């Protein structure tokens, strides 16, 4: 009896210890609200929406301690519409993320699955549109050309993220094409880094997607998620954030180059054929935030984008001005209400492009204003 009691006590103690070192967590964010669009194809629009600012999502993440500072980890994250209950990201069960890997306190983290690229991981958090999780959907740069709002994730991806070495973090990602005889047919690779010293944060990143216009539907990027169908897309940029007390000021620059561009066919498709030529976008963003109280803050950004398009009708140099301002008030640690105004103006330079605030119906002219109010709850 005494031996049985000791064995039972040891087993209970081991189970408690194992439970303390392992975990599975359910989490999520729900964003529901109303949006006014001043120019939705030439008409005013009033709509109820899900994730107008932050994409509604829920997820499961887990961790098992393997000893010696190493652990097995996973994360499965679903994007959905709270207004109609449907799944986003092409109907995927885990369209936001789905990956498994190993992490070490000494070396870093190695993961496998559907993941964010290095530009999203390191540079996007310094921009107004790239605030994680879910981004600020009304503030993406034109057509989310630099993917800072993570319009697409990378499938078949192997990613490494370093540990923090005295404020320096870096990482890289490779998304396989998974096509026999077509190693670079719809593949992606990227790398990035971030350095924090006191109130300053610096970041830079690079992404390249090859042959995105191919018929390889099992490759690194799902074609229906892409704004651009092009033979090659390259994105690179850098940014800095400075924090002083309750204020934060930031600057982000990105450049996107598209070779062999066929169409711009995102959610707000213009059906614009580029005659197999190219295009580029240079984005210059200034953003700021101020916390008046722990519960109330105002954030905003101004972005100037200079474009270059080579189309069947000639060469064009459209430019965009975007301004977004958001006021946010937390009712509790997990629930907040917000209002955001986003305005865009385009000088189309004969390209046929019109104003197009991210996630909204495309305008019929050169200006568009979107006003959103909403409620967000985290769990």
TrEMBL record:
SUPFAM superfamilies per UniProt: Porins
Name by which UniProt lists this protein: Putative porin
Quaternary data: Homotrimer.
A Pfam family hit: Porin_4
Residues making up the signal peptide according to the UniProt record: 1-20
Subcellular location(s) per record: Cell outer membrane
Organism of origin: Paraburkholderia eburnea
Record has Transmembrane as a keyword: yes
The keyword Signal is annotated on this UniProt entry: yes
An annotated GO cellular component: pore complex
Domain Porin as annotated: residue spans: 9-343
Main location group: membrane
Alphabetic keyword roster: Cell outer membrane, Ion transport, Membrane, Porin, Signal, Transmembrane, Transmembrane beta strand, Transport
Matches recorded under Gene3D superfamilies: Porin
Bilayer disposition of the protein: Multi-pass membrane protein
Any one GO biological process: monoatomic ion transport
Coiled-coil boundaries: none
Molecular function GO labels: porin activity
């Amino acid at each position: 009896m005494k031996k049985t009691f000791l064995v039972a006590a040891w087993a209970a103690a081991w189970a408690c210890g194992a439970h303390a070192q392992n975990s599975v967590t359910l989490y999520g964010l729900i964003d529901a609200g109303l949006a006014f669009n001043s120019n939705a194809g030439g008409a005013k629009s009033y709509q109820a929406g899900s994730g107008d600012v932050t994409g509604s999502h829920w997820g499961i993440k887990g961790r098992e301690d393997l000893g010696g500072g190493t652990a097995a980890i996973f994360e499965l994250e679903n994007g959905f519409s709270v207004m109609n209950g449907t799944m986003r990201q092409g109907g995927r069960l885990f369209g936001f993320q789905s990956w498994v890997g190993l992490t070490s306190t000494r070396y870093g983290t190695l993961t496998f699955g559907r993941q964010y690229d290095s530009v999203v991981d390191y540079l996007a958090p310094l921009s107004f549109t790239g605030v994680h999780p879910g981004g600020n959907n009304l503030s993406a740069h034109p057509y989310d050309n630099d993917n800072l709002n993570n319009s697409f994730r990378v499938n078949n991806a192997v990613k490494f993220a370093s540990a923090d070495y005295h404020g320096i973090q870096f990482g890289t990602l490779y998304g396989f094409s998974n096509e026999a005889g077509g190693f670079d047919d719809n593949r992606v690779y990227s790398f990035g880094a971030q350095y924090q010293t006191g109130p300053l944060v610096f970041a830079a990143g690079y992404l390249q997607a090859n042959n995105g216009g191919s018929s390889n539907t099992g490759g690194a990027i799902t074609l229906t998620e892409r704004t651009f169908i092009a033979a090659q897309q390259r994105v690179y940029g850098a940014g800095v954030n400075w924090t002083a007390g309750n204020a934060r000021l930031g600057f982000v620059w990105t450049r996107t180059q598209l070779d062999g561009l066929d169409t711009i066919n995102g959610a707000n498709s213009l059906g614009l054929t580029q005659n197999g030529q190219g295009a580029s976008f240079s984005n210059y963003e200034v953003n700021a935030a101020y916390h008046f109280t722990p519960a109330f803050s105002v954030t905003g950004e101004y972005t100037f984008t200079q474009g270059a398009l080579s189309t069947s009708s000639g060469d064009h140099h459209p430019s965009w001005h975007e301004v977004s301002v958001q006021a946010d008030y937390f009712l509790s640690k997990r629930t907040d209400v917000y209002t955001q105004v986003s305005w865009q103006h385009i000088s189309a330079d004969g390209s046929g492009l019109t104003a197009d605030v991210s996630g909204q119906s495309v305008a019929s002219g050169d200006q568009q204003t979107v006003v959103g109010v909403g409620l967000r709850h985290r769990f």
